[in-house]
Automatic annotation (TrEMBL), chain A:
Key word Lipid metabolism present: no
Keywords for this protein: Membrane, NAD, Transmembrane, Transmembrane helix
InterPro entries given in the database record: NADH_UbQ_OxRdtase_su1/FPO
Molecular functions (GO terms): NADH dehydrogenase activity
Protein's name according to its UniProt entry: NADH-quinone oxidoreductase subunit H
Localization per record: Cell membrane; Membrane
Highest taxon listed in the record's lineage: Bacteria
GO cellular component: plasma membrane
PANTHER family the UniProt entry points to: NADH DEHYDROGENASE SUBUNIT 1, NADH-UBIQUINONE OXIDOREDUCTASE CHAIN 1
Species, as recorded: Pseudonocardia sediminis
Taxonomic path: Bacteria, Bacillati, Actinomycetota, Actinomycetes, Pseudonocardiales
Keyword DNA repair set for record: no
Family: Belongs to the complex I subunit 1 family.
Residue spans crossing the bilayer: 6-26, 65-87, 107-127, 139-157, 169-192, 225-243, 249-267, 279-304
Automatic annotation (TrEMBL), chain B:
Compartment(s) where it occurs, according to its Swiss-Prot or TrEMBL record: Cell membrane
Function: NDH-1 shuttles electrons from NADH, via FMN and iron-sulfur (Fe-S) centers, to quinones in the respiratory chain. Couples the redox reaction to proton translocation (for every two electrons transferred, four hydrogen ions are translocated across the cytoplasmic membrane), and thus conserves the redox energy in a proton gradient.
InterPro entries tied to this protein: NADH_UbQ/plastoQ_OxRdtase_su6, Nuo/plastoQ_OxRdtase_6_NuoJ
Enzyme nomenclature, EC number: 7.1.1.-
Organism per entry: Pseudonocardia sediminis
Membrane-spanning intervals of the chain: 6-27, 34-51, 57-79, 100-118, 138-163
Protein name per its UniProtKB record: NADH-quinone oxidoreductase subunit J
Keywords, comma-separated and alphabetical: Cell membrane, Membrane, NAD, Quinone, Transmembrane, Transmembrane helix, Ubiquinone
Xref: Gene3D superfamilies: NADH-ubiquinone/plastoquinone oxidoreductase chain 6, subunit NuoJ (1.20.120.1200)
Family the entry assigns: Belongs to the complex I subunit 6 family.
Amino acid sequence: MIVEVLSLPLLMAVAVWFVSALDTVLGARAASRPVRLGAAAMAPVRESARLLVGQRRVTLAADGLLRWAGTVSLILGAVLAAAVVPLGQRPVADLSVGVVWFNAMEVVAWAAVWLVGWGPNGALSLVGGYRFVAQGLSYELPHMFAIITAALAAGSLRLTDIVDAQAGLWFVVLMPAAFAAYVLSAAAMSFWGPFDAPVARDVAGGAASELSGVERLLFEGGRRLLLVAAAAMAVPLFLGGGHGPWLPAWTWVVLKTVAVLALLVWLRHRSPTIRMDRWTEISWVVLLPLTIVQALVVALVVLARGGV
Amino acid sequence: MAVDPVQLAVFAVLGLLAIVSGVLVFVVDSMARATFALLVSFLAVATLVLMTGLAYLGVVIVLMMIIEMVIMAVFMIMFMMNPAGLMPMSMFHNTRGATVISGLVFAGLAAGIVGVDWPQRRAAPPADATVALGEALMGGHMLTMMVLGVTLFATIVATVVLATDRGRYDRLGDDLDAERADDPAGGGVGR
C-alpha cells in the first residue's frame, strides 16, 4: 500500500517529463529544427529551473488567495483522480465508486482554471477561465456517457472490476465511439491541443497569461498531470488495464498509458486549436448523441448476455 | 454504542468547517470568494456524508457541487449588471427578514434533533449501500423516477425556449426553408 502511495506521484512526474520531452521533440520536428534527443530530454528540467528563479509578475488588485487555491487544486485534483487507476493489479485506493471519484476529481480542474483566470484581475486571463468552463460544459456530458458505458459493461463502478471484465475482450473493441469520445475529452479536460483555446495565443495565453515563476510552473505541471491522469484512466476503462501476454500487469499499464500519451501529444501537433463555438456545437450535436447510442448498444449487449 | 474519538473529532472539524465557510459566504464582499466559500461548505458536508458510509452519494455531491458552483460563478459574475462582477458587493439582502427566518429554521431543526426519539437500527447495514440506494430508488418507483426525469427535462427545455429571443423562424426564415440557419455564432457542423 505504502509503495503505491509513494510511487504514484513519482510515476506521474516521470510521465509529465515524458510528455514535455516528446512535445519538445515533435515541436522541433514541426518547425524543421534539428531534433536533438538529449536537449529535448533536458528541456523540461531547464524550463522548470528557469521558472523557479523567474521574477514574479504582480497585477493590480489581484485575488491572490483564489489564484493560489486554483493553482494548488489543479495539481491536487489530478493526483487524487489518478489514485483510483490500477497500477497493475491494485490502485492506491480501490474505491467501490472509483469511476465517480475520478469524475469528481477531474472536474476540480473546472474550478481551478476558472480561479486561476479570475485571480490576477486581468481581462485576458478571465476570458481564458471562461473559455475553459465553456469547454468543460461541452465535453463533460459525452465524457460522462463514455466512462459510464465502461462501468455499465462491467456492471460495476470499481476500477478493478472493470479491468477484470476485460479479460476476454478489451472494451475499446466493444465501444469504439465511447473510447474516441473519452480520448477527445481527455485532451479537452487538460486544455491540451486541439482544445487549448483557454490558454490560446489569441488571448495572450488566456488563463495562464498573468502567471509567472513558480505559479506558472505549478499550473503547467498541473495541466500535464491532468493529461497523464486522464490518459492513464483510459487504460483500465477501455484498454484492458493490466491484461496482456508475457509481461507483468504493471508493465502493460505503463506501456498502454505511454501509448495514449504519445497519441495525445501527437494529436496536439497535428491539429490547430479548435474554436470554442465550433467545438461546442460538435460536442452537443455529434458527440453527445453518439455516446448515448453507444451506451444503448452496450446496454443491449449486456442484456443479451443475461447480465443486469 | 461507543463513539470512536477520532471519528468524532473529524466530524466536529468538518461540521465547524461547513458552518464557518457557510458564514463566510455572507462576510466576504467578493462574489467569487462567496461562491467558493459555499463550495468549501458543500465539500465539508459531502465528506460528512462519506463518513456515514454512503460512498456513492458523498462522491456525487462533490462532483455536482463543484460543477454547480462553477456554473454559478458564470451566472453570478459573468451576467451580473456590474461589469463582470468585478466591483465588491455585499451578499446581504433583506437582512432583518433573513435573520428571523434563518433563526426560526435553525431552532426548528435543532429542536428536531434533540426532541425526536431516534429509532434504533434493527437490520444490519447493507453490504453495498449504492446498490441498496439504487434499488430503493429505481426498483419499485421506476415509473415515478422516469416521469420525474421527463418532467424536469421538459421544464428545462421549456424555460430555454421561453427565455431565448431567437426562435426557429429567426434562424430558418418565415417558411423554415432557409438553406443555412442564420446564427450569430458559427457552429462546428455548419448548420
